[in-house]
Design brief:
By secondary structure, this protein is of the alpha/beta class.
Length: 120
């Protein structure tokens, strides 16, 4: 039986204390129902508002979570690059930490890739 490809969700984060718990919970809910192998990679791009401390609690709640911390703000592109560097999945999905993207859309994106698309 063929193993399903692992999905790496990369979340660049900068001062998202107000929304980061919701983002984590919504992502956790999506993958709990979906039953696909996954990892959630949160890249803290030098947050100064308490986001860092919240992020550090996530791996205790879900062993599929990894946190990458930057000592200062380097910008979204470098945060994404660090996320890709740490990703172990076969499929990478980027999602914003401010909930502009709906985590429940991730299965639709991956379904398109599973059907043969290279980029969605």
């Amino acid at each position: 039986m063929k193993q399903m490809p692992m999905i790496s969700v990369i979340v660049p984060v900068m001062n998202e204390r107000e929304t980061i718990n919701d983002v984590f919970q919504q992502l956790d809910d999506v993958f709990e129902k979906w039953e696909r192998p996954y990892e959630l990679i949160f890249v803290d791009d030098g947050s100064t508002d308490g986001t860092t401390e919240l992020l550090d609690t996530f791996p205790d709640k879900n062993p599929n979570v990894r946190i990458v911390h930057f000592a200062r703000n380097f910008g979204q592109q470098l945060a994404l690059s660090a996320g890709f560097d740490h990703a172990e999945g076969d499929i990478c999905v980027i999602i914003d930490a401010d909930l502009q993207n709906d985590p429940s859309d991730i299965p639709k994106l991956v379904d398109a890739i599973d059907s043969g698309y290279d980029v969605v």
